[in-house]
Amino acid sequence: MLKILVLVLSGSLAVGASAAALQVSPWWWAAALPLLLLVVVAVYDLVQRRHSVLRNYPLLGHLRFAMEALRPELQQYFIERNFDGRPFDRDTRSIVYERAKGTDAAEPFGTERDLYQAGSEYLTPSMAPRPVRTDPPRVRIGGPDCTRPYDMALLNVSAMSFGSLSANAVLALNTGARLGGFAHDTGEGGLSEYHLRPGGDLVWEIGTGYFGCRTDDGGFDERQFAEKAADAQVKCVSLKISQGAKPGIGGVLPGAKVNAEIARVRGVPQGETVISPPFHRVYSTPRELVRFLARMRELADGKPVGFKLCVGSRREFLAVCKAMRDEDVTPDFIVVDGAEGGTGAAPLEFADNVGLPLSEGLMTVHNALVGVGLRDRIRIGASGKVATGSDLVKRLLQGADYTNAARAMMFAIGCIQAQRCHTNTCPVGVATQDERRARALDVGDKSQRVRRYQEATVKSALQIIASMGVDEPQDLHPHMLLQRVDPQTVRSYAELYEWLTPGQLLASPPDDWASDWLAADPDRFTH
């Protein structure tokens, strides 16, 4: 093991040099003292709890911090080569790290952003800003058929499964959620003891593999689902239709990674490759989807039920809306996942080319629900590169009620973007099932970082909202978000995009929506 080798090698050299200084010549102390100092540093690296990379790589890990000290040049070089060409920029990552550590993220000399670049967006401050509220607002999740509503925070932990993340990473995220009073989405990998042990609020996600509520032949097991959904920590249940980074395809978990613990959590045979199909068995039409959501809510004893998707065809989503009206059944929430979402398990061509980005997906879902008169019954969550307070505010302006963050939460627990998620050799113990590596992630320290990051980001969002002259998030409107169209032209979102009025699709669909609305069929999915 590398860290033991480093400690043994540095210790042996220090002992040898010290012996030479005592027995051969005092001049050897020139080598012995620095070597002894390195041994002390290596031991400290192993026992300290703040930096996972140093716990796994004593002495050598300091090279990473030395490189970061050379920012922006070297740090930007590495950041630009991460996350499949859709990185968080340097400033965003720095904001997340600094907030997680509880330090000031401000930097001198103003913005480094090109304010005149086409596509740049700006929030509009008011000449009459409002006082910043000190009590973060909550979003009530629960429509007319929900008997046990849940009050969601403005920013929550997005879906990341145990199996892709280590046990300590899951423990840190859920402990942070408990400390900060926000929700933690389990991801589709099942409901593990690491989600439950800390006591944080959970959104239990069910994917196409039905892990944790799975029959022997891979179907949905109602009995198992009802038993686990009854847990007091499970506040909502989400059916994953698709995710941003890989909409329309399933996943593969190699048999070598399916140890006894993961097999038990997922309800699959140990050591066998697990394939998540691209489609659900429980429905094949929009109407069947809506009916199944109603059945899930019944099995969950009235807890909020919703679904997550990366939006593709507007016509298909309108077909679901027609099915909702026909059946008089609505989900309590819909999470819109943008195509810019990340994962360590997606073909590059899917990650780069399939699905709508979050902005377009959000506005599509919001307008469709408004147009069919169902928006007041359904809350919308936004997921996909949400990291800062300004990200949060923009998503609220585009139609969301609340947001979820995944990569930013990974940064908060120590992710350094090593891009080894798929190799099981994550150097900081975040995305690995190697227990020796995962031990480097100190749950106590990292859970506090998660809490601090979420708290500071929501506070930043509330400061921005107040600066815009608004008291409540629901008072934000599209005209408050501007986009530069070209070097000479700036337009608001109210001008750039069409915003439907309540019931408009039922009464008189606008030209741009008419053909999709007419073709949408609640009894089949079709483009």
List keywords for this structure.
527 residues; TIM Barrel; 12% strand; globular
Give an overview of the whole structure.
This protein has two domains: 2-70; 139-518, Aldolase class I (TIM Barrel), CATH 3.20.20.70. 41% of the residues lie in helices and 12% in strands. The protein contains 21 helices and 15 strands. Strand 10 (305-309), helix 12 and strand 11 form a beta-alpha-beta unit. Helix 1 (2-23) packs antiparallel against helix 2, helix 6 crosses helix 18 (443-467) and helix 11 (286-299) packs across helix 12. The longest helix is centred in the last third of the chain and has 25 residues, at 443-467. It is globular and about 95 Å long. Mean pLDDT is 84; it is low at 69-86.
Task: Describe what is shown at a glance.
The chain is an alpha/beta fold and 527 residues long.
Cα-to-Cα separation, first versus last residue: 54 Å
Strand order of the largest sheet: 4-13-12-11-10-7-6-5
Provide the number of structural domains.
2
Gross morphology is globular
Mean pLDDT: 84
Largest sheet: 8 strands, parallel
How would you classify the helix and strand content by structural class?
Answer: alpha/beta
Share in helix: 40-55%
Tally of contiguous helical segments: 21
Strand coverage percent = 5-15%
What integer value in Å does the Rg equal?
Answer: 25 Å
